[in-house]
Design goal:
Layout (H helix, E strand, L loop, with lengths): L13 H20 L12 H5 L12 H12 L21 H13 L9 H16 L7 E5 L2 H17 L3 H4 L6 E6 L4 H10 L6 E4 L9 H13 L3 E8 L11 H11 L2 E6 L23 E5 L11 E5 L2 H8 L32 H37 L3 E3 L7 E6 L6 H15 L5 E5 L2 E7 L7 H19 L7
Parallel strand pairs: 2-3, 2-4, 4-5, 5-6
Antiparallel strand pairs: 1-7, 6-7, 8-9, 9-11, 10-11
Helix pairs in contact: 1-3, 4-12, 5-12, 6-8, 6-11, 12-14, 13-14
This protein binds pyridoxal-5'-phosphate (PLP).
């Protein structure tokens, strides 16, 4: 018999590997349990950064050594979104069940491209839930995506097929000069999707805002008429169920009506807010979302599912298959056996090999139930109102946008020539202090401190600490004890 060297990558000593695995799990449970004892974020030492610029190892190391390296050089220098003091950008906090689901999915190593397996049925279970949450018809299709950026790009492809039929997959959209409409506050992922889809960023017309910070629907209607007159082809309207800067929600019901009468595709960017429909209190804010032709949203933000987990829902499900199906011979379906089953996710999106994002989503929803998740979301909105109230009580602070959801924009008052730099300085000092991580954005052309209260762990006392630190830093920087750079 021919003897081959050992190539199996399983442990030689299962007992010690098991022991090490348990230690890793304990370390991460400790991390989650004791988050508040850590800084939210900390600057990365050069030595640590450089240590990740080495050549790949020819030989292997023990699991224990790699684990120690993770604890020492990776875990302390993450962005900090698990921490209750993280309020910069729209990031989810993650949960214990989400972490464990990632481990289970990793162990199973399922490939969700297709074939006859229950992991695909779990994804289809989520699709059924998603249809019900957003009151879409039974015929709606959907699929997990990396995030809303990918979902928006895919929605553009589907809308193209809806408009010109499957021949567009052979011929492209030709000489049409397509127009896509969105509020001027729309997320950058739409610009990127227009670029990547080949429609071009110039096809986007940015619509002005009304006084409440939402897309001005009357202005949109006028624009569509003018564009038709000019020989352009109005194609799609993108409404936001929560804009990234201020959390404003477009009048989705009015946009749905307009799109229907104008025969335009109605896409909703629900990355930030759509899952707010889990809360009976918040759901009415999203009235009209149920009429979208396509809805892209994220489980990994407000839904707290670990990264990454986005979802795309398409009202007219057959269009999704028409857009993405292929007939490669090695993907042929059989009546029985492993290659059985009609609904293969590879026919519903651009990917063939796909991870088991459905498991962590399914386990999160099963663990907490939508009522508790909805209550958590409503609580983050209550915290946003709480901090807005605190801001309005402080003479040196100024609220910069109405609070609709879980986002608060404010700034420290200062002379016009200094106010932008001063607030940027405050944001950086806060981040480097480890007390809290806010971020900066632009609201009506002015730089503001933005708190996105997405993390389920954030408490009123974290916000009180943040306001206290902003007041302290603002005073210190504006009295010139530290020169603004
Ligand atoms: C985060 C976000 C996106 C992009 O979603 P990803 O999941 O990061 O790709 C789009 N729109 C809004 C409003 C967002 O907050």
């Amino acid at each position: 018999m021919t003897e081959f060297p050992r190539s199996n990558l399983d442990p030689e000593d299962w007992e010690s590997e098991r022991h090490q695995a348990h230690a890793m799990l304990d370390d991460l449970l400790d991390y989650m349990q004791n988050l508040t004892e850590r800084p939210v974020w900390q600057p990365i030492p050069d030595s640590v950064r450089h240590s990740f610029q080495e050549n790949s190892p020819g030989g292997g190391q023990s699991l224990e050594e790699i684990h120690q390296r993770f604890m020492k050089d990776i875990l302390p220098y993450a962005v900090g979104n698990a921490h209750p003091g993280f309020m910069g950008w729209v990031h989810g906090g993650g949960t214990v069940v989400g972490m464990l689901a990632e481990m289970l999915a990793g162990g199973l190593n399922a490939n969700l491209g297709g074939r006859d397996q229950i992991p695909v049925a779990v994804e289809q279970q989520i699709l059924r839930w998603v249809r019900a949450w957003f009151r879409f018809p039974e015929t709606a299709q959907g699929i997990f995506t990396t995030g809303t950026s990918q979902g928006t790009l895919m929605a553009l492809w589907v809308a193209r097929v809806a408009r010109w039929g499957e021949r567009v997959r052979q011929e492209g959209v030709g000489a049409h000069t397509l127009r896509v409409y969105a509020a001027s506050t729309v997320h950058g992922s739409l610009h990127k999707a227009l670029d990547l889809s080949g429609l071009g960023k110039k096809s986007l017309h940015l619509v002005a805002l009304d006084e409440s910070g939402r897309m001005d629907v009357a202005a949109l209607q006028v624009q569509i008429g003018e564009d038709r007159q000019a020989g352009l082809t109005p194609f799609m309207v993108v409404g936001s169920a929560g804009t990234v800067d201020t959390g404003a929600i477009d009048d989705l019901a009015a946009l749905a009506v307009l799109c229907r009468t104008q025969s335009l595709w109605f896409h909703v960017d629900g990355a930030l807010g759509a899952l707010g429909c889990w809360s009976a209190e918040l759901a009415p804010l999203f009235q009209g979302i149920e009429q979208a032709d396509s809805l892209a949203f994220d489980f990994h933000k407000w839904g707290q599912v670990p990264y990454d987990a986005g979802f795309l829902l398409i009202r007219e499900g057959s269009l999704q298959r028409q857009t993405f199906s292929s007939s490669a011979r090695y993907l042929a379906r059989e009546e029985r056996g492993t290659a059985a089953g009609e609904d293969w996710p590879c026919d519903l999106g651009p990917d063939l090999s796909r991870g088991f994002r459905a498991l962590k989503t399914w386990m999160t929803v099963c663990r907490y139930g939508t009522e508790r998740l909805g209550a958590m979301m409503a609580h983050t909105c209550a915290l946003a109102r709480f901090v807005a109230e605190k801001v309005s009580q402080e003479a040196s602070l100024e609220l910069m946008a109405p609070v609709t959801l879980n986002i608060v924009c404010f700034r420290y008052r200062a002379e016009p020539a200094q106010v932008d730099a001063l607030n940027a300085q405050i944001a950086i000092a806060l981040q480097e202090s480890g007390i809290a991580v806010p971020s900066m954005t632009l609201v009506r052309g002015q730089r503001v401190l933005r708190l996105a209260l997405v993390n389920h762990r954030t408490r009123a006392r974290d916000l009180e600490a943040l306001i206290c630190a902003v007041l302290h830093l603002g005073q210190r920087f504006s009295t010139g004890r530290i020169q603004l750079s």
